[in-house]
Design a protein that fits this description.
Radius of gyration: 13 Å
Order of helices and strands: EEEEEEEEEEE
Number of strands: 11
Distance between the termini: 40 Å
Largest sheet: 7 strands, mixed
Oligomer: single chain
């Protein structure tokens, strides 16, 4: 089992910045990909960004150029730097950790990000 704990959400004005952090603990050797998803009210959960153990990154088109995902393998941490935030970025953001084949797939409890216009 892997436990994920997010922090860093909050309320920010449009154009502002936030940094989300996620700490992983437990059976982390099973994990190769870490990422962030988000879910707004009435919407399905969607991928924001992910990063592999070797540093490969992928972003949703809606956040490219504004968000940056990074990872500290020594500390078992993943971060999401969010800049130029827009009201449409408002959602609960979930940390995700998984193996390449999705045989192992874990979620954090989520952290609320609210962007006011």
């Amino acid at each position: 089992q892997v436990q994920l704990r997010e922090s860093g959400g909050g309320l920010v004005q449009a154009g502002g910045s936030l940094r989300l952090s996620c700490a992983a603990s437990g059976s982390i050797l099973s994990i190769s990909v870490m990422g962030w998803y988000r879910q707004a009210p009435g919407n399905e959960r969607e991928l924001v960004a992910f990063i592999t153990s070797s540093g490969g990154r992928n972003y949703a088109d809606s956040v490219k150029g504004r968000f940056t995902i990074s990872r500290d393998n020594a500390k078992n941490m993943v971060y999401l730097e969010m800049n130029s935030l827009k009201p449409e970025d408002t959602a609960v953001y979930y940390c995700n950790a998984r193996s390449i084949t999705y045989a192992f797939n874990y979620w954090g409890q989520g952290t609320q990000v609210t962007v006011s216009s």
